[in-house]
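ok here's the first one, seq then struct tokens
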Amino acid sequence: MEVDDDKDEEIYKNPSPLNLRLTLTHLAADSSSRSSDHRLFSPANTNLHSHLLQSLTPMASNDPEPKEEETAAEDEDTGAQVAPIVKLEEVAVTTGEEDEDAILDLKAKLYRFDKDGNQWKERGAGSVKFLKHKKSEKVRLVMRQSKTLKICANHLVIPTMSVQEHSGNDKSCVWHAADFADGELKDELFCIRFASVDNCKKFMETFQEVAESQKGKEESKDATDAAELLDKLSVDDKKDEDEVKVKDNAPEEVNAVKAADFEKKEE
């Protein structure tokens, strides 16, 4: 079977899908007679076969890839400014700690003892602080949750308080307090756990120092109150004495007035 060279050249120049299929079918039919027809192995037929195989390989997507220049143009800032629909004003936020100085600030996790369930319940994890008031010099313990800033503990440190190390964990300690975190005074048993033993010791030492420092102020306050009470009592006693003297002298003054009136009548 002979191969038409002109037809092969035309297919080579214009490899349409129909011509490609016909050519492949033509080559497959002629494969059985390759031993007798050496024209199939001519350079022209070999080049044609390679070109046909390349034409039938899957083509890349026809969608053009975005050019770098176009992408850069899209990302480029146009400088346009959009006026806000609603104008928000800045609001000053107060924490209630503006008049206090932080003595200690540590990260910890707080627990409180649930008497009804007879178990420890987590109160929150965050920052625990000892805050000293600038004027009154009173110290309170405040702890807030790290994410929500919700108050976990809020109570004064008074001389009668004491902190003790937890028997089962050297990174934890416990104490009693009249807490005001929920908006009302509650007698709570707290347990706090730190990441290290050093932080726990530092907390306990600061707690004891603050409690002892408040003891002297409490005694001086009691002495001042007692002195004021004594002064008030002395003033009250003096008033009572004056009132008694007036009462004692009242009959004499009455008699003198009566005598003066009697003399006027006689005249």
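and now the second one, same deal
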Amino acid sequence: MDDGVELVSRYMEGRHSQDVADSQVRMEVDYEQDEQRDSGVEDEDDEDEDYELEEDIEDEDISAMSNVVAQGRKFRSKAWREFVPIQVDGEVTEGECKHCSAIISAKRGDGTSGLRNHLQRCKSRATVVEALNHMNASLMTPDGVSRVWKWDPEVARKMLVRMVVLHEFPLSIVEYDGFRKFVSSLNPSFHMITRKTLKNDIEKDFDEYKKSLKELFGSAKSRISLTIDLWTSNQTIAYMVITACFINDCWKLGKRIIKFNTLETPHTGLSMFNMVLKCIRGLNFEDKVFSITLDNASNNGRMVKLFRENLVARNMLLWQGKFLHQQCVAHILNLVCQVGIEYLDPTLTNIRETAKFIRVTGNQKEQFADIVTQQGISCEKSLRLDVPTRWNSTFTMLNIALKHRRAFDALERQDPQYMYAPSAAEWDEAKAVCKLLRVFYEATKVISGSKYPTTNLYF
């Protein structure tokens, strides 16, 4: 899937549809609504005055129990709620049991006694009814009031897809014997799907969500601003994520991730331009772009230049694209803070080596924890390593280390193998720089907000 399966985690609304044989026509609608609005020919079957479900279970609890309509013929019998009508030459002649897939004769004019008799004998249905009765009897709200529970296999399958995508489980999880038995213990009527079907469901839901994005942006009355972020993982794989921000009809700030992809080398402005342009064309909002916010790297500047020239030539940008390129303030603050961090390089090296030292073995971890307790240090956070390319993680590491200063000194006295204790002068420098960095740290948190506008905070 070109746009990445990550987008599926922002889950789409709707319902799944199942393929049935070409000879079967199935439409499920609400029974009560059909009686009020349908004007088709009524079924000649009796109205099942003697047909009743189990006393302790509601009609709507049975899997997919909804009334059926086929080519203008409305089935009034409740029995049809548990059968799929099978047509031959446009006439319903049989019904397929939704519980055990048995085929029962149901010609027009013969009534539904055959269907009802089968439901009384169907062992699969009996198992479902027993399970539902048990669950309905045990479901209680926090205040002790019974709650009616409705089993919907489509919702269950939708939640299965969401779980696999959200937690990045392998598709083969649906074939694990332990997982199948676990699901069966929760509800024996759920028919587990195969990994191929799961894959198809994920791709289908992704396509449906992408379609909903097109509709969302197509009906948007505001301009749309883009933010683009690029980074390289520990596996030296480059990624690009594009987020679209807009104001909805209720004047609320909205945002959607519209692209999450690996970025092929070379990471030139031209390759980035092609990817961004293809993305917004696919979602059909080229004429609604207002601005792009990204770092001030040279390839980013080249990409924005190409993007501006392309849209201006087609009269799609306001004010000839004067406000198209917005610099990322958080990135500017990052550059400023990196200079201050470089000043503390010797001290930071000792702190990093100390963090590595106490993590080598479990004994050293316990030793340092005992020293922290002996020194009466009440800091709830333990010493951690930073990510050198993220200055805010370096600030956090430095801030925690300052609170453990006495533990560093005690470790130096107690363990002759420990050679990384900062000097008193280095601690004083670290304290001074940390005080300055805190201001930038708080500012970065404010301007990095995603649920409120931030432009007004620094203009």
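notes on #2: The chain has a mean pLDDT of 77. Residues 105 and 232 are 64 Å apart (CA to CA).
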